[in-house]
Amino acid sequence: MQLVARREALAEDLRQATVQLINDESVYTDSVDQAAAETDKTLTLQMKNRDRNVLWQIDEALKRLNDGSFGDCERCGESISEGRIEAFPFTTLCIDCKAELESEEHRFPGRM
Ligand SMILES: [Zn+2]
What we know:
mainly alpha, Four Helix Bundle (Hemerythrin (Met), subunit A), 4 helices, binds zinc ion
């Protein structure tokens, strides 16, 4: 019951974050001189890439909310702790798997 309410609240947060990202578009279109415009363009491109990544994460999180797998670790299937979800709403790994993957990556650099 509590978990359902949490998921609802999170889904709402994600929807609002999406709306904010879409509305933010207009902020970056106002450029004055050429140098500033060039800098803006670079910044805008960087922002766009980041936004796309965030939107993708939101999308994935919403999908997981819809199919009920949100909050489960995609590696071991255990529930991800609430504290971790709160700190990293888009995470798909529990803290143990995350730590394990990171140490594996450390042992074999460049491989997942
Ligand atoms: Zn796990």
